[in-house]
Amino acid sequence: MAYERDFEIRLRVFEPCVVHPEFADFPVSDNRDAIAGLVAADADIRLISIPPDPVADSYRGTPIFMPAADAGDEFDRVCPVQDDIRSWHALEALAENSTRGELDLIVPKAARRRAAAHRVEWMQDDPDTRVFTRTSAWDVSPVWWLALDPQRDQVISDDIGEGDEGFRIRIRTPILTASSRVDWALEVIKEKSKLVSVVESTEMFSEWLDGFDMNSILELDLGGMSEVLWPDTGAELVADWVDSLDADDREGAGAAFTRYTRMWEMLGLYARSS
């Protein structure tokens, strides 16, 4: 059994299969648990090897599906597994923010050379460079909550143990709804907030959402953090902050932001204790 990465939270975009002819011959099924186990087991092997190799292999031939019956409409949807592509992005960010000595300790030179070669091969095929999955650890980015509303969106709770031993929460919304929410929040934040980093993050998030087919579904999977984050996700505090800014209620905006920050700090303590 693979090491459990309960701290991982994933934001996925599922696009209609009709816009992905490369998956036309794949049998559509709810296969995410099987794929997650495969990817995690491979990661375990790479990370305990000597030297370790933290750069993931390609799993683009094993996509995650959302069957039409599961989505409640006529579209089968797919989310490509792109652990290698996301590893390349992470490696770039690490190289920009680490010294050469630190980088050599975290990602051995042999692994970096192999990743660079695989990336060149991938680029030669004129690839789709979009990234379909974003990952967070321990908590949900407040920018993600701008796209989601647990009070209005579809919330799916799956039992993951015997009896009442555990559950996993997924929140789904049409990507057009998510995009319109983020665009409205961005207008408010740009005009009335002084948090430049939040404005920049929201702009990049908006651009990311707009890059997908209009019939896509955005899904937040709280995974192993469901019991910690649900139902007090922080989404309501983020919405209160933006609504207060829009109403020029500086005091209310400050109070909502402070409450969210306090929640964030508590989750930070939870992460360090684990």
Automatic annotation (TrEMBL):
Q: Please name the Pfam families in this protein's record.
A: DUF8083
Q: Which residues form the DUF8083 domain?
A: 9-267
Q: In terms of domain of life, where is this protein from?
A: Bacteria
Official protein name in the record: DUF8083 domain-containing protein
Organism of origin is Brevibacterium pityocampae
